[in-house]
Amino acid sequence: MSNILLSPLGRSPGAVSGLYHALDESGVGIDRLIVLATADTAVQESARALRYHFQAKPKEFLIIQPVSSKDDPDMVDERAVYGFIHRVNAVLYNKQPDDRVYIGIAGGRKTMSALATLSAYIYGAAAAYHFWVHEEIERCGDIFDLPSQPRKREWIMHPSKFHPSEFNQSGEHSHQLVSIPLAPFDRLWDQERFSEILAENPYARQALLRAASERERQEIEALRSQHLTLEETIHRARQVFEMTDSEWLVDAVIKLSVTEGNVNYEVELKPYISDPSLRTQIVRKLKSIETLAGASEKFLAYLLGVLTPILVTTGTHLLGAN
């Protein structure tokens, strides 16, 4: 079982690190911190500050996922918004049964906090938290206003480590962990029926559908009986995965399908799948497909060979390449 803290990141890295420490000290031990960061310059500086703050932790502890591009550093484009939602949904939906995902809403834009809370209601989360801090910490919390004095800088990043009177002359309480109530909506509907309803509404599907689901697998399986050309098959496959976190599947499998001779699966899949154990599982499936002759059949077999293990993974395939 793992406890995962999933949090947007804005210009104040202490909003994320402070929440982590407050949860840890309340008895909720966090095993992995997944941070969703835009390409904004200040946010990227915040990400570097978090890496420095948690440098003593194992590499796998802090995962920073991009949710926008340099062309849209502040999530003003609709596609970037969908990308953010899909990242949150994928972590919540693909977690292991014993994992507990905690949502932090103190960092990032208000829009990010609202969308993350919505996903927590729909797909289920262990809890959601805000992290309130004293106005002095808030004033100094911006990445470009962080104090240069190491001890005061540490106070901004980890306020619960210090007595309030050390940096706050009034001695007032410097921080508070605020629990956000969540209703278990994810238990109130049939997941397969929910998937069908989303598929009937393109906008809802774009906003809410998680990464590769059983429905996508069935749609790809159905293509095998339609005797399409390779070009037609690829086009249909792209339509199936459009606006999901698994769009990369088609691109990866096209590359595998057209490679002549023996395929080095480890090398070809590494840019797409970061988890070595998941890659090993997929490679075993793909090696049995090499003898297929038909281009369309081979493409679909490869696609299903990559897709099937991902349906049961923990979401680590979404975390980027090593």
Short description:
The protein is an alpha/beta fold and 322 residues long.
Shape: elongated
Name of the top-level CATH class of the largest domain: Alpha Beta
The average pLDDT score comes to 80
What's the count of strands? 6
Rg is 22 Å
Which residues sit in consecutive blocks of at least 5 with pLDDT less than 50? Answer: 312-322
Terminus-to-terminus distance: 23 Å
Side by side, the strands of the main sheet go 3-2-1-4-5-6
Would you tell me the structural class of the helices and strands? alpha/beta
CATH architecture of the largest domain: 3-Layer(aba) Sandwich
Q: Tally the helices: what do you get?
A: 14
What about the largest sheet? 6 strands, mixed
Number of domains: 2
Beta-strand portion reads 5-15%
Assign the CATH topology of the largest domain: Rossmann fold
The helix-strand sequence is EHEHEHEHEHHEHHHHHHHH
Helix content: 40-55%
List the helices and strands and how they pair.
Elements lengths: L2 E6 L5 H12 L6 E6 L3 H13 L8 E5 L11 H16 L6 E5 L5 H14 L3 E7 L1 H6 L9 H8 L17 E6 L10 H10 L1 H7 L5 H10 L6 H12 L6 H11 L6 H5 L6 H11 L8 H17 L11
Parallel strand pairs: 1-2, 1-4, 2-3, 4-5
Antiparallel strand pairs: 5-6
Helix pairs in contact: 3-4, 7-8, 9-10, 9-14, 10-14, 11-14, 13-14
Write up what this structure looks like.
By secondary structure, the chain is of the alpha/beta class. It has two domains: about 180 residues, Rossmann fold; about 110 residues, no CATH class. Helices cover about 45% and strands about 10% of the residues. The chain is built from 14 helices and six strands. It is elongated, with a radius of gyration of 22 Å.
